Amino acid sequence: MSSIVHPAPASKPTPALQPAASGHTPLWKFLAPVAAALLVALIPAPEGLPQYAWYYFAIFVGVIVGLMLEPLPGAAIGLIGVSVVTLLSPWVFFSAEQLGKGAFKPANASLSWALSGLSNPVVWLIFAAFMFALGYEKTGLGKRIALWLVKVMGRSTLMLGYAVTIADTVLAPFTPSNTARSGGTVFPVIRNLPALYDSKPNDPSSRKIGGYLMWVAIAATCVTSSMFLTGLAPNLLAVELINKTAKVQFTWMEWFSAFAPVGIILLAAIPVLAYLFYKPEVKGGSEVPDWARKELTQLGALSGREIGLAVLVLAALAGWIWGGDYINATTVAIVVICLMVIGKVVSWDDVLNNKSAWNTLVWFATLVALADGLSKVGFVKWFADTVGAQMAGYSPMAAMVALVAVFFFTHYLFASVTAHVTAMLPVMLAVAMGIPGIDMRTFAMLLALTLGIMGILTPYATGPSPVYAGSGYIPSKDYWRLGAIFGVIYFAVFLLVAFFWIM
Predict the structure, then answer these.
(1) pLDDT tens sequence across 258-283
(2) Domain boundaries in the chain?
(3) Phi-psi region of 49 (alpha: psi -120 to 50; beta: other; left: phi over 0)
């Protein structure tokens, strides 16, 4: 083994991840959502669907195109979408019968709908979970956990893969942003490890160990994102959309119990599978755990803030698991945030300055309202009746498998799990509702549980994907190949285990 290269401090970003200079957003990205909405609006409404509902759908299509192209942040696009609907509500949101009622005020009714997402408890649960992630960052507890695992398990490359996997799993229940969890907490630690073995980015030596570790990290966070309801923000959005569309509700524990067998199998297999399909040249050594030990020594003993955060997140987890009959999950999270501020785990300024949390709050609040609007104007029912009639000859089981497969692999077309959920989930639910014999609770759960694992497919499929794709350790052709292999494996295991477990 070559001489040890001492890694840079974990908090300093690598050159590969330095943000590019902000360029001018092409005009076509602004025009494309408008053009898509106008194109749909100009098509005559299908038989059985009122014209105003078709106009609403046109606006919804424009929002989805905007979320895919992102000429503006997602929150801004969602806000523009609900604003346009509110302004045009007499023509795109209300029927002639509603408008004909003398006491009916379309301006007030549309505004109430536009703001309804902000009163949604799931939206605030998403916000609260971002604050938990902030606590991990501010206290340094997340970094300490990752380093400790590396110290204990880092003497072989395979065990180091398991250390990376466990680190993400430990953080996942309290971090709804897999970008913050994997890209912001796990990656800054593991990016220092390849240098210890002279494994360099954008170099043939990347295959020594760097490529293996990076792939294990992204593969693991995709599984943990599905394993916990609070492990991925779109999971919570999906739960709310399922409730509004299919009138089916899930608790945190129900979600975990449904995916746990799949998650345990995949998490146990990931380091081994990566070893087989992207085999590292380095088998092990003592340098990595020695480095982690030195880093932990520099951190010193657990601070009072770290201990306080650990107690609070464990209390929150206990409340989510066992408190469902007595206290709402969102209430638990908000109480814990209050205690974090009171106990100075985070400051109120930290809360106010967490732009990601506030941005996500507006983003999901508007998307919940927009997706709910499809039901309110009757689009979902019409679609369910139409497509359901076409699939009447399919057996319930065959229909479920086919629809889940379509839902999973269409993620190749999306660079955002949120956009995928908003665009596809209500459609899939609507189709299933029109097929006799389908258990909607089972089907809805099967759809929702795939949201994390589908993130393995492409270098743009989920938040941390660009981080690892841009690290310099996984060439693009390797990423696409591994994504396809692991995508098929994930989906196959999911179908074979979850399908019959949930049924």
Answers:
(1) 999 999 999 999 999 999 999 998 88
(2) 26-114, 121-357
(3) beta
